[in-house]
Write a structure and sequence with these properties.
531 residues; alpha/beta; 5-stranded parallel β-sheet; 23 helices; 15 strands; 14% strand
């Protein structure tokens, strides 16, 4: 097994805000508190110790949430450890994608576990717990109801409405059977089928199913899975909800940030950034200032301010944060030091520092999750035969092929030397021409441009002719790109972990942990060996 690391900026797959953040560009320094450097964790720990956190209640809630999940002694010990003031956590989060969804959900979980392991060695006087925060309140079912295995899409057709975590998994049984047929009878097939069966056919709902699934994969590493859709958690966030409803502070604060934010907004605040939650219903709360009433979108439900204050007091579970407020809820109830996410997540968290300060909640360190490109032995053989490195495949297909042809061409198809000579020649002509008449420089430069355009066309013809001679190699490169970059995108954004688990079983997670590095230092390509 071999690991190759490519700088994120060289992959061409990450936004400027992320590459600037990782490169510590000063333009972003006002938007975070702690730079993504392990040396800063001692400061974060001190800051988090100054916040009030009801640790006893946190342990109580987690024990309740795990009441119907069989887990490891390590997870149980980690839950109990939250009752101690020297215990902190590293958090990642995601929606409830069926069968875990794309590979990067696995990667972000591995990243949290890896960082906790690193911090435990660096600060043995503390305890660090990896946490996965379930996005159980999200209601966009179409975002989570499908996954891709062996290049085929598997979709759960259902629409129960409301928070996805409350969805009954009864109707997913048929899809499980279809997936099991595709999985077949390999060495780890029975184990994986048992995991999926236990999760989706024995789970109480989709949130519970996802807990069972993640627990089966990561319990040996102490991962604690937290569901934010909890009455006690939300009661702790009542002051945030009251401020949101009656002061609309989030809209004002975040819009002030976005007014000078040097990048495109990743998430824009609404007038009220809360949903109203009921069985099979999650709808926006809309405030009508002219009537001084709160309306639940797409329903006939309305509240007066007094009624809504009472509702928060008696039923905090009926309120659900959107993307603007969810990070505050998360940091309010957990002793969290850092949040690990993808590029889009980091981008919208960077908009929220001022909102955290307003609510007197410590803004965590923001860390980009690990990214991997998994290259199996068959692909490695083709790469070796073609004499190219995997990091040369990150560009667009036409550029990858053009670079390959130029590098491996037996004939000289690069006319850079000739173009340089032409430029020098025309430079001399311009000197002579302007000594006669200064207005002639534009005419000479126009002629130079015409010659250069002709050279570019000639280069394209030479490249086309050379491509024809390398048709076999080019088709092999296209095949590699299709395999390693499905639909032109990163492998981790479309493929599910199933195919890799079938090859390696639980060792797949170990392999990822061995190659993970937090904070990240680049995009990792893993040349996977079956030995």
């Amino acid at each position: 097994m071999q690991k190759l690391t490519t700088p994120f900026i060289q992959t061409g797959r990450f936004s400027k805000i992320i590459t600037d953040y990782l490169n510590a560009d000063n333009v972003l320094s006002p938007y975070y508190t702690y730079a993504p450097d392990s040396k800063n964790f001692e400061l974060i720990i001190k800051g988090k110790q100054e916040e009030f956190l009801n640790r006893a209640e946190l342990v109580e809630v987690l024990e309740k949430q795990y009441a119907h999940t069989t887990t490891s002694s390590l997870v149980k010990n980690n839950i109990q450890a939250f009752g101690k003031t020297n215990t902190f956590c590293i958090v990642t989060a995601h929606q409830l994608n069926i069968f875990t969804g794309p590979l990067y959900v696995i990667y972000k979980t591995v990243s949290a576990i890896k960082l906790c392991s690193t911090l435990q060695q660096q600060f043995p006087q503390y305890q660090f717990v990896p946490v996965f925060w379930l996005g159980s309140e999200d209601h966009d079912f179409e975002e989570i109801n499908h996954t891709s295995v062996f290049g085929k899409s598997f979709t759960w057709e259902d629409k129960q409405g409301g928070a996805c975590g409350e969805y009954s998994t009864t109707s997913i049984a048929e899809l499980c059977n279809t997936l099991f047929e595709a999985i077949g009878d390999g060495p780890h097939a029975a184990s994986l089928k048992n995991i999926f069966t236990e999760a989706y056919l024995h789970g109480h709902n989709l949130a519970h199913a996802t807990r069972i699934l993640l627990n089966s994969l990561f319990q040996d590493y102490g991962l604690v899975i937290v569901d934010g859709n909890d009455t006690q958690f939300k009661a702790n966030c009542a002051t945030i909800m009251q401020d949101e409803l009656f002061n609309q502070s989030s809209e004002k604060i975040v819009n002030e940030v976005l007014a000078t934010f040097p990048y495109e907004a990743q998430a824009k605040p609404r007038n009220v950034n809360l949903f109203y939650l009921q069985p099979k219903l999650r709808e926006r709360i809309i405030y009508h200032s002219d009537k001084d009433i709160f309306e639940i979108n797409n329903t006939s439900i309305t509240f007066s301010p007094e009624q809504l204050k009472k509702e928060i007091l008696l039923h905090p579970e009926n309120f659900s944060p959107n993307v603007i407020l969810r990070p505050l809820f998360q940091q309010k109830v957990l002793p969290s030091l850092a949040y690990i996410g993808g590029g889009g997540e980091i981008a919208y968290w960077l908009q929220l520092k001022s909102l955290f300060e307003y609510h007197h909640i410590q803004f965590p360190m923001l860390l980009l999750r690990d990214s991997f490109l998994l290259v199996d032995e068959a692909a490695q053989k083709k790469l070796n035969k073609l004499e190219i490195s995997v990091d040369h495949l990150f560009g667009e297909e036409q550029h990858v092929i053009a670079d390959y042809v130029k590098t491996h061409s037996s004939d000289a198809i690069n006319l850079d030397a000739e173009k340089t000579a032409i430029s020098e020649l025309f430079s001399g002509i311009i000197t002579k021409a302007t000594s006669i008449d200064t207005s002639l420089d534009k005419a000479v430069m126009a002629e130079q441009q015409a010659v250069m355009t002709s050279f570019a066309k000639l280069e394209a013809k030479l490249l086309k002719a050379e491509k024809a001679k390398m048709e076999v190699e080019i088709n092999q490169i296209k095949g590699l790109l299709t395999k390693l970059f499905p639909n032109g995108g990163l492998q981790e954004r479309s493929e599910n972990f199933t195919a890799w688990y079938l090859k390696f079983g639980p060792d797949f997670i170990k392999m990822l942990l061995e190659n993970a590095q937090q904070p990240v230092n680049g995009f990792a390509s893993i040349l996977v060996s079956s030995n």
